[in-house]
Specification:
Strand order of the largest sheet of chain A: 1-2-6-3-7-17
Distance between the termini of chain A: 16 Å
Shape of chain A: globular
Oligomer: homodimer
Number of helices of chain A: 14
CATH class of the largest domain in chain A: Alpha Beta
Number of domains of chain A: 3
CATH topology of the largest domain in chain A: Aminopeptidase
CATH architecture of the largest domain in chain A: 3-Layer(aba) Sandwich
Strand content of chain A: 15-25%
Helix content of chain A: 25-40%
């Protein structure tokens, strides 16, 4: 059970923690745009906040947006916990669909609305509150605590591997906690044990060297939009299977037991379709449940497409070019490097006469499987059970937290994914939100984890 | 031979005619945007210009952008010629590809650069110059002349049929001339005898009711971009044949003689590809030459595609929707109404679970075949031969001048297409231009036509 003073302190400081989080959410720390750069001021604020709690903290440079590193040394015989979070956020557009401004955090009906409320400012800030509570209520922490906050997670963490390598000694720890995932459903605490990897691309098809008249040239010139559509369509067969040669070669099978456990989860495909505002879950491969398609199977999705005239009315042209942004979600043990090579070959093979194609590889991340039987995982299960009063389950996740694989490889640490988001949080969408009760209970979970881990470590 | 005084007057007033055309080209009379409306001021200017020449002229309302009608009555026993042109233009974007402003007409190396220089302000203005020359040099015209200028040709002439019907008596004539086409090549005067029709659409695929996270939903939700790409790809088989059931049912065969004549035209497919800045003419159906594909065969082209994130970098979403703008070019005797119905059925059949599709029919135009053996066609051949000193040939055209079919049906007139554009004029593209020698010789052709037609009519 969490130290009673710490628990009481958290309970009596909810308003202060909410106010602090709202300050954090006001920074427009969008990482995928160069200007205006809202990342550095946000990093400065986070470091200052950590110093205010009693941490040694500083903003450290990377090749891109800076990292924040905070440290509190509690004792040489105590274990060390590393917390990772990211303070950058997705772009907020389309702006017109937000009920209140994405960077004007607003509480309505027990939810906090803002870009980053769940992903990941709200979740990283739970750990600030927990550390603050321990220090204020007990004068110290049960572990040595290191906090690492990244500013480029939403663009695939291009600088983090080099950063971790350079600061490996400083960031060494006995356990790693990441809170950047969510519950399977409200009331069902969940720890994520696998995340999909990623390979993202932009493909450009160039045709004529200018937009030309669709009447005077139609039937003669290869149309870059039509050609690009044929490429995109060719990526899947009629059963939803990806057709890129070798794509599935390294996909690991999953045991029937794990699949059977998932079938017990409260998930109704028709309900989920309704929540998404659509009438059916028609994506992915035939022969798998929707959860299996999202957790076990790789997926290839277009994120954006563009080309030719997009204004009102018409313009009767064959455009000079068209392009598409594609993200592939990969599962263990697909290798992003092999997938990139296979895709580049596929595009070349689907580039018709009259078109010059260009493939820009945006970034890649390996899929990851995490330990579920470690000391840290056990401490996490207990902390979550205590804070949310329900026994947690393990699940997988269709999204990518590329950093988990880098931590495995560079620091030798398997993360414990103590996420408290809910499926309805509108991640990456307009009206992103975080349920306040999840946030407050999450601060209790974060505080309890430190104590649980220290006890297991001692034992 | 054209009246020598008229010819001399045209030769000595080239600068004035160029200056007048430049004034006309400065109006931003783009019809496919509502605001800013550059159409009415342009129409007012044209009517004033006609009055300045000696015409009765006025701006007449339609359901959309206004028409200009000018009339000069030369004698009750004289035949009547109707000239049609359009003063609206295509949007100029992408603006950054213009060397000089699209609405800042500029002469370089014997070419006049501006949006509308060829299509169609430059060509309609040849007839202004011809009429002015006749009246200034001889005091009258050899025919009764009516000039009708439309402001909505580039958006498919939605108001013209009603307008022609309402003003049928006022616009009645013995011959119709339209200068809105071009030479097959410089030095090869050409009269167009068939034009493709058109059916244009916007198709929207709606998926989830908001953009959602591509990791958390990828493999479950139907992705509107991927689905739309499959629809577009399905429009053609691997041989470039359109797959819409019934699409080719009413396509008329063309005689081997006409096809053989075309093979004598100076057209090299590799050259044409190079001119378009590409390496091959890969569009359309296998088994036809490029000219046959453009002139004889229908074509289905995407003019624009859009959906999801289009900004810099990435946004890992499955978007709420995607859309495509499609133009079909139709040939005799395809019926646009049947084609629209077939396409709507095709889209419905290619809308997968999880998607709601919407087809907006933008506009339609019937394909047209024009008489090549009429009195007016003969007068046109002679006028063109005289002005350009080379015997003209008949050809077909892949583009659409929907008005030609409406004139056939409503006024019973087959147009003579006396166009003087050149293939390199960049119609609908950046850096649209008109060769000044074509413009000046075109004014001679326009003046000679009036005389030729009057003589043939009398005989």
């Amino acid at each position: 059970m969490l130290n009673a003073d710490v628990k009481a302190w958290l309970d009596s400081h909810r308003d202060e923690h909410l106010a602090g989080l709202c300050e954090l959410l006001r920074f427009e720390s969008i990482s995928n745009v160069a200007e205006p750069d809202g990342c550095r001021p946000c990093a400065d604020w986070l470091a200052a906040r950590l110093r205010g709690i009693g941490f040694a903290a500083e903003v450290l440079e990377t090749a891109g947006r800076p990292c924040v590193v905070g440290e509190f040394h509690a004792g040489v015989d105590l274990p060390t916990v590393l917390i990772y979070g990211h303070y950058d956020v997705q772009p907020p557009d389309p702006l017109e669909l937000w009920d209140t401004g994405p960077f004007e955090p607003t509480v309505r009906d027990g939810w906090l609305y803002a870009r980053g409320a769940d992903d990941d400012k709200g979740q990283l800030f739970m750990h600030f509150a927990a550390a603050e509570a321990w220090l204020a209520a007990s004068g110290s922490l049960p572990v040595n605590l290191k906090i690492l906050l990244e500013g480029e997670e939403e663009i695939g963490s291009p600088s983090i591997e080099k950063f971790l390598t350079a600061h490996a000694e400083r960031l060494a720890a006995d356990a790693l906690v990441i809170s950047d995932t969510g519950f399977f459903a409200e009331g069902q605490p969940t720890i994520t044990s696998a995340l999909r990897g990623l390979a993202s691309f932009e493909v450009i098809f160039n045709g004529p060297d200018r937009d030309v008249h669709s009447g005077l040239e139609g039937g003669m010139l290869t149309n870059p939009i039509n050609a690009l559509a044929r490429l995109v369509a060719a990526l899947h067969d009629d059963d939803g299977k990806v057709t890129i040669p070798g794509f599935y070669d390294d996909v690991l099978p999953v045991g029937d037991e794990e699949k059977a456990a998932w079938r017990q989860l409260p998930f109704d495909e028709a309900d989920h379709a309704r929540q998404m505002g659509t009438d059916a879950l028609g994506g992915g491969e035939r022969g798998y449940t929707a959860l299996e398609r999202n957790w076990l199977r790789p997926a290839v999705d277009c994120n954006g497409i563009f080309g030719g005239y997009q204004g009102q009315g018409e313009k009767t042209i064959i455009p000079a070019s068209a392009g598409v942004k594609i993200t592939m979600r990969l599962v263990a043990d697909q290798d992003p490097g092999k997938i990139v090579a296979a895709f580049e070959k596929f595009v070349a093979g689907h580039t018709p006469p009259g078109i010059k194609s260009e493939v820009k590889v945006r970034h890649t991340a390996r899929p990851v499987l995490l330990a579920t039987d470690s000391m840290a995982a056990g401490a996490g299960l207990d902390a979550m059970a205590e804070a949310f009063a329900v026994k947690p389950v393990f699940m997988r996740c269709g999204a990518s937290v590329p950093i988990t694989e880098v931590f495995q490889r560079v620091l030798g640490l398997d993360a414990v994914m103590l996420g408290v988001g809910l499926p309805e949080d509108n991640l990456h969408s307009p009206n992103e939100k975080l349920k306040l009760s999840q946030f407050y209970d999450g601060t209790v979970m974060a505080a309890a984890f430190l104590e649980n881990f220290a006890e297991r470590f001692k034992a």
